[in-house]
Amino acid sequence: MPDAPTTTGSPGSPDSGLGDDRIRALDAHWRAANYLAAGQIYLVTNPLLTEPLRPDHIKPRLLGHWGTSPGLNLVHTHLNRVIKDRDLDAICVWGPGHGGPAVLAGSWLDGSYSEIYPDVSRDAAGMARLFRQFSFPGGVPSHVAPETPGSIHEGGELGYSLAHAYGAALDNPGLLVACVIGDGEAETGPLAGSWHANKFLDPVHDGAVLPILHLNGYKIANPTVLARLPRPELDELLRGYGHEPIHVVGDEPLAVHRAMAHALDEALDRIALLQRTARQDGLAERPRWPVIVLRTPKGWTGPEVVDGLPVEGTWRAHQVPLPGVRENPEHLRQLERWLRSYRPEELFDADGRPRPHLLAEVPEGDRRLGANPHANGGLLLRSLPLPDLERYAVPVDKPGATLHEPTRVLGGLLEKVMADTGARRDFRVVGPDETASNRLEGLFRATGKAWQDAVLPTDEHLSRSGRVMEILSEHLCQGWLEGYLLTGRHGLFSCYEAFVHIVDSMVNQHIKWLKVSRALPWRRPVASLNYLLTSHVWRQDHNGFSHQDPGFVDHVLNKSPEVVRVYLPPDANTLLSVADHILRTRDYVNVVVAGKQPCFDWLDLDQARAHCARGAGTWDWAGTENGAGEPDVVLAGAGDVPTQEVVAAAGILRRHLPDVAVRVVNVVDMTRLLPKEEHPHGMPDHEFDALFTRDRPVIFAYHGYPWLVHRLSYRRAVHPHLHVRGYKEMGTTTTPFDMVVRNDLDRYRLVMDVIDRTPGLAARAVGVRQRMQDARTRHHAWIREHGTDMPEVAEWSWTG
C-alpha cells in the first residue's frame, strides 16, 4: 500500500489547506475514538490504564470487530469538521458490518451518548460503563443498532446502507447523508443495485448523498473484489454508475488526515455547486455526484504481527486481533502497548473527560452526528392529512350485487393524500414498476414518477420532482422506504404478492429495529412500514405458477407480535378502512393483501369500518342461523377470493340444504386468530369460542397456505374440528375459477366439506354432494373446450 495519500478528481495538491493545529486536533480525536473502540472490545475495568494491564481487567469473552473501526473513526472525525465549518445538517449511515465500537465512540466523544444514557457519563466512570456494556449481557450489540445515537441503519446484515441513505435524503433538501460502504458490503446484490439510486435523486427537492467507499481490502477471511480491482477499472465502474471518484489512499495518519480533509471539502463543494445550479438555473442533465474512495489498512493502528503472523492490513484484523489476552502474557503485553500507543493521557484528563483540543472540531447541539433529529425521525414526524373516506367509498345497496377493483378505489384515496402533501413532501409510494399494473395510477394525477435521466416522447408520467418511486428492484424500493420512514416521513410499498419475498430478510431487520426502538424511550415512534400486496396468487392465472406465492404473510407472522399486523380486506370499502388505519399507525409493519381485479362489494362504508374494527365477525345476511343458537357448521373466509367462494357456498347450502344452520364468518385481521396472550390483537378464548364455537365443524377458506390458520389457532378448543382450505402449490396458467378448483378452495368443494364434516348430514345430503362433484367435473370439461369459466361461475352474484 502506498505511504503517500492521494486524491483525484481535480487538479492540484491534496493538501487540505488546514493548519497544523487543526490537523493535530483531528488526529487527537481520531486516536481517542480508536482507543475507545479498542477498549470496548477488550476492557471491563481500568479504562484509563492508570495501572498496568492485568488479566482481570479483560472481558471474559472477547467480542466485536476491530478491522473496520479505524476507518469509520476517520470518517466520523472528518465529518465532524465539515459539519462544524459549514454548519451542515448531516447524518451518516454506517454500512460496514459490526462497526458499533467506532460509532459508539464517536457519540460518546461528542456528548450525545451521555445525554441519552446519563449513566454512561463522559468521564472515567462512564468510560468504564461504555467499555463494559459493549457485547456484554444486558449491554449493547457489536454493530450499529437502534441503541446507537445517530443511527438509522442496523449494521448486522449487509447490503442496505446506500438505499437507506438515499431514502433519508428524499424530500430533505437541506440534508447531507454520508454513507460509508464497506468493501465486503459492496459485493452484495442490494448494494450493487443501490448505485442506481442517483438516477432518482432530485437536486432541487431532495438532499445529497455522499457515498464513501471504504476499501480496507478484506472480509472475514477473503480479499474483497473492489479492493483488488486496478484503480482505472474501479474508476470506470464508479463513473459508469454516474459518480466522480475522489481517492484517499494511505497509511501514514497525518498525511491521510490532510488528504481526507481535502477530499471532503472537494466533494462538498461539488455537491453545493450541483444543488445551487439546479435550484437557481434548472437542470440540463442528470448530475454526476462525487464519491470518496477511502483506501486504508484493515485494523489500521492495531497490532501489526501476532504470533508471527501479519494482522494489520490483513483479514486477521477483522474481529479480535489478540484473542488470547487473558491466557497469553505476550498477548496481554501487546494489547497494553497497542492501547498506550494512542497516548490516552494526552486525550483524557485525570477524570477521564476528553481534553478540549480533541473536541475543537466537533459540532454542537443538533449538528452532532449523534444528536441530529433526522436520525430519530419520530421527532420530525407529522400526521398525514387523511381525507374523509366517504368521498371514495363505493355505494353498496345490497351485498354481492356490484363489483369494483379495490386497489383502483384505494388509488383515489392515495391520490388525495399525495396531493395534500404536495407542499410538505412527506409521503411517497414505492414499487417495482407496478403502480399502474396494481391499479394505483390515480397517483399520477397528483405527482409523477421520480426520474432524473432522459425522457422520450413515448414515456408517461416521468418527473424530476415525482414522488412515486419505481425501479425493478424490490431491495431498493424497500431500502428507500425504510430510510424515508426512519427520518420522519410516510409511505407505502406496493408489490406483486409473489415477489415481495425478495425482501424477506430486509423486513426481518426492520421488524427487529422497531422491536428494539419501542423499548427505548428516547426513540420516538415513526410511521409504519406499509405493504400493499396485490396481483395476488388467485388472480395470477395469466402469469402462471411463477407468480403464485402467498407466503409472505406466513413469514411476517413469525416475527415480533408487538410489531407485525396482517390484513386481508375482502372488498373495496374494507380496503379503504384498512388503508386509513395503517396510514395513521406508528412503529408497525402492516401487510395488506388485496385484489386489483373486479371484486364483489359486500359491505357499505359504515359496515366496513365496524367489521375492520372488530377484525373478524359474522355476516348474518349470508348465513342461515336464524337465531337458532349455535350453528350446525361455520363457514369462514379470509381474503377476497376465498370470501367470494365462502359466500357462494353459503348460497348453495341455503338453496339445497335450507335446514342446515350455517354461520358465515369473515376475518380481516389474521392476528385475531392468535390467543390474546400471544398477540395484542388476539382474541381471548371466550370471544373466539363465541365466534367459531367450541365443537362445531369449521370450514375455513384462507387466502394463503392453509397451515398458517392451523398454526395460529392450534390452542383453541375448536381446533380438532377445524378444516382449512387454501393454496397448496397447485398453480398454473389457467382460468380464475380453475385456480380455486385446483387448490380445493372452490364453492363446490366447500359445500362437500360441510356435508362430510357436519354430523348426520352426509347420509341425507348425498344427492347434493353428488351434484357438487358433478359441477367440478363439468368445470374441467368446460374450460378445456371454451378457455373460460362456466357461466354459472362467471355470471354469479349473491341473490340470498
Task: Explain what this protein looks like in three dimensions.
- This protein has 800 residues and is α/β, with parallel strands linked by helices.
- α13 runs parallel beside α17 (572-582).
Low-confidence stretches: 1-14
Total helices: the number is 26
Structural class computed from helices and strand pairing = alpha/beta
The percentage of residues in β strands lies in 5-15%
Features:
800 residues, alpha/beta, six-stranded parallel sheet, five-stranded parallel sheet, 26 helices, 22 strands, elongated, disordered N terminus, EC 4.1.2.-, Probable phosphoketolase
Present the secondary structure layout.
Layout (H helix, E strand, L loop, with lengths): L19 H23 L26 H18 L2 E6 L5 H10 L2 H5 L7 H10 L27 H9 L5 E8 L6 H6 L13 E8 L9 H4 L2 H10 L2 E7 L3 H29 L7 E7 L9 E2 L2 E2 L18 H12 L3 H4 L55 E2 L1 H15 L6 E5 L17 E2 L11 E2 L4 E3 L3 H13 L3 E7 L7 H15 L10 E6 L17 H6 L6 E4 L4 H11 L6 E5 L5 E2 L4 H10 L1 E3 L14 E6 L1 H17 L5 E6 L17 H8 L5 E5 L4 H7 L8 E4 L10 H7 L4 H11 L3 H4 L1 H21 L4 H4 L6
Parallel strand pairs: 1-2, 2-3, 3-5, 4-5, 9-12, 9-13, 10-11, 13-14, 14-16, 15-16, 19-20, 19-21, 21-22
Antiparallel strand pairs: 6-7, 8-17, 18-20
Helix pairs in contact: 1-2, 1-3, 1-5, 1-10, 2-3, 2-10, 6-14, 13-17, 17-18, 19-23, 23-25
EC number: 4.1.2.-
Protein name: Probable phosphoketolase
Keywords: Lyase, Thiamine pyrophosphate
